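Hi R.,

Here's the chain you asked about this morning:
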Amino acid sequence: MKARILVVDDEPRMAEAIALALIRSGYECETCTSAEGALAAFERGGADLVLTDVRMPGVDGLELMRRLLAAQPSLPIILITAHGEVRSAVDAMRRGAFDYITKPFDNNELRSLVARALTLGRLQRENRWLRRELGARHADGVICESSAMKEALELVERAAHSKAPVLIQGASGTGKEVIARHLHRASERAEGPFVAVNCKAFASGVLESELFGHERGAFTGAQRSRSGCFERARGGTLLLDEIGEVDVGFQAKILRVLQEDEVQRVGADRPIRVDARVVAATNRNLKEEIAAGRFREDLFFRLNVIPIHLSPLCKRPEDVLPLARHFLARHASDGGRLLTLEPEAEAELAGHSWPGNVRELENAIERAVVLARSGTVGPEDLLLDSTAAMAPSPATVSPVTVSPAPLASLQEALDGATIEALGRALDRVQGRRAAAAELLGIDRTTLYRLMKRHGL
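And the predicted structure, written out as tokens:
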């Protein structure tokens, strides 16, 4: 199919001349003499590329570019400028324009630039298609068998093609950032950046600079201007993790950014337009936070356009073993090993309640890869807390009352696990301490200190 190009210039003769040169090269062209006409043509038939003059009465070429990129972020746009407008054109390239061409230009220069822009656009479309195909088959690393997770992933796929804000809620360790990354990869913004910021990690004053950026001299230590996360995520996705930890006063500033699509750097005197798809995540129940006066209701509704809830791992036991095998393959490969799970280990994994969710499961598998002596992982390599086993169903509970065994202190349990891990590592490398330290992922000083403390 011929590439469809929109040529936008308020001088009809110039628009027709450009279109004629491109038609002779085999392209399909439609000319427009205003930004409004170009938007209508784009709405009617789309475009593979847009060539637009910068200076036009009414809505100019830069505003036209902004509106087109809001509708289709990957659309190649070439600006036609006069010599005095080069600075504006360069600034526009930072905001998403493919390139610019300066009047007067010859047709060969124009055709070469158009061909490069269309080739890049085609490669980006093919890349997105491949990402979606891989995502459909492998869910971008999201391993799931449970109906709850499959429903969440289906919602992600349906939401991916819009710019609407998404709110992901779930307990710590359920994989909220994994889902956010999957949403990004499945979207039209997959070629753009994915920027994640943990709102809990910053005090309010620091968080403002982190999200919105700052100008040089805005505060002590601000030796240079710095763009914030909203700017760095332009054309991509911004994950506001732990959004429930932000204080109410700063929530108002985030709400304004979401409403206006612009931020004001700390110390700046004018706002900057931003274009980032916002995904928020929290382990808190925001409705309860609203009732307690700790979260703004208007911000909740602004973020909760597409709500995604992730169930804890104990509510989706079908996912435990597939996830365990996935983590085992990854961490064993990183260590240059080939390992499998013994049936007894799989039974112990399936019977554990996983209060730390997927994060706890991955940590257990990573630990087992270090501790496993042979080509299989046994239950003794997992070092799972036996008190966190799945609660038995009422039908299987014995009516006999048994006095519980005395519980060791937490320190005693940790010391026991440490001694066992050190002993296994030293046995495996025939007592070579440097090799044992490397196997355990610690430095030799730490190994010597632990051996001395435990009399090894």
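DSSP finds 19 helices and 16 strands in the chain.

Let me know if you need anything else.
M.
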